Amino acid sequence: MAEPARPYDIGPLAASWIRSLRARNLSPNTQRIYSRASQQLREFLLAYEPSEADDRPAPTALEGAHGIHREHIEAYIGGLLETTSPGNAHQHFRSLKTFFNWAVDEEEMDRSPMRTMKAPQLPEVEVPIIPDDALKKLFGACKGKDFQARRDTAILMMFLDTGARLTELTERRQAALDLDLMVLHVLGKGGKERPAPFGRATAVAMDRYLRAAAKYLGRPLEPLDPLWFAVKRKDALTIWGVGTMLERRCKEAGIDHIHPHQFRHTFAHLWKVHRGDEDALMRIMGWRSRQMLSRYGASAGEERARQQHRELSPGDRL
After folding, report:
1. What CATH number should be reported for the domain whose range is 11-105?
2. Global confidence as pTM
3. Distance between CA 31 and CA 34 in Å, rounded?
4. Is residue 111 predicted with pLDDT exceeding 70?
5. For 80, which of 69, 89, 123, 262 could close a Cys bridge (C-beta 3.0–4.6 Å)?
């Protein structure tokens, strides 16, 4: 009796895909997201068992009658929707669609199994902005003249003053910073670099941090050094290190947990409150679609509407 065919392993093909992403110089965070999606799909397919008698069996080839089909991907995405979140499922969907499109471009496949699939719908989630009193308490928790206090203050000031994403702000080297022009060159989505300007107060906080970092390391800073240093190991601070720092500082300040992305929404809200130019905001934030203008800072939209009504009230003009 012939042994049953083994489930198809997409691992080697996915490894080639990730190497192609590195060759295209995509951001490390994008590479991590894509790699995680392909690895988790690989594990799912290797352990796949039909739930119903008439369901497709586990794929034993990349494509063809026994290959990876739409039903397999739908089962995988459906599982993510049940066990994680719509946002996570949507991210995996986009990552895997990119993977299979790459496989078609490389002539490993004739057709993508996801070619007719639609991404899972994302519910509209309004990210809350950070209240002024919470910001004051947070910065109060970072007061001090030691290296860690100077570093944490500088990180928070840069978050608040640039609207940069977590990975854009964290995964940078010293050469990306220009204190004289007050600009940090960040690498946004799609590997596109843009200048993120910041103000005088942030420049002062950064200057203090850099001087403290040089003393902490016991040497001058070099252009290829990481922008942010961890306390214990004195090497590059990771995105997880920044998240841990923010969580700790929120506890010390006695405020609810703040996610780094809330700073981005808060920046957009404050820009709109003070009637900043929308085209300039799009450039600063690295947006290509004007739809983002309404999404960011949406949770405080009513507040902005009330403020403008106070200024433009037809009744008050009588």
Report:
1. 1.10.150
2. 0.66
3. 5
4. yes
5. 89
